[in-house]
Every structure is written in C-alpha cells, then in structure tokens.
Hit-like protein
Amino acid sequence: MAYDDQNIFARILRGELPAIKVYEDDQVLAFMDIMPQAEGHTLVIPKTPAISLLDLPAEAAAYTIQVTQKIARAIEKALGVDGIILMQLSGVPAGQTVPHVHFHLIPTNVHHLGKHAAQMGDQEKIKAQAEKIKAALES
Ligand code: AMP
C-alpha cells in the first residue's frame, strides 16, 4: 500500500489541520489525541512518511521511541499518573485508523480502556493537559 499524503496526520504535519501540540522538532511531533482514551492521551509521530512501524526506517523508529520515552516522563510528571500504556497499531487488521505511524501514550490501566477512538474529548480540558505536559518538558 502506498503512503497517502492526504491522511490526517500528514495534514497536521503540513499545518493544514490543527493539533494541540506538546512537542515538535525537525523529526518528530507529539500532540494530544482528539478522542482520548484517558486523560493525557498523547500521540507521538515521526515526520517521515511511513504507514506503520513496519515500514518506518530503523533510525526514525529509534529516534521516535526516544522522544516517546521523554513525553511519557513528562506526562507522568505533569499529570501525576502512575503507569502509561504505550500502544502502536500497525495495519488495519490491528485496528489502525490513521495510516501514518504513531505511538499512543495512554495514562491508564489497560483494563479501564473503553472503545478505541470512539468519543470526542473535551478540547478545552485536553488543551489544559497539553499545557501541563509542555511545562513539564521545559522544567
Ligand atoms: P489508530 O487507530 O491507532 O490509528 O489511532 C489513531 C488515533 O488518532 C485515534 O486515537 C484518534 O482518536 C486519533 N485522531 C484522529 N484524528 C485526530 C486528530 N485530528 N487530532 C488528534 N488525534 C486524532
């Protein structure tokens, strides 16, 4: 399958769609999930156009996981949570809904998870969580 450069995350990367960003550098973007499965649900994406982890070049994968670890620490510090689920769905059969590789950071217990990507979150609440995570990254 060819990479679709009109997918939602590609459009966010180009600035064509809004996102509540918590971190960005020249290789990676981290932003809040619009339909959070728990408070502080954050997505980390490489800027490399890849559909899934399986077609992401190893160096980009390595760097993205390093940033994911950094964001996880900031979420823990900012929101006072213990325990974060790292989820990565590769392929539609696995349940992937956006065809640009991404790592979910979901601060919850897996047994508390409801339906995946099913309910729009309170955007103001999400923005407030993003501000806390950004502050934790800077401290
Ligand atoms: P997946 O099903 O693993 O591909 O996850 C895609 C995730 O992207 C879901 O958790 C959605 O809630 C999230 N999502 C979809 N559109 C947006 C958007 N515009 N901004 C932020 N998150 C989004």
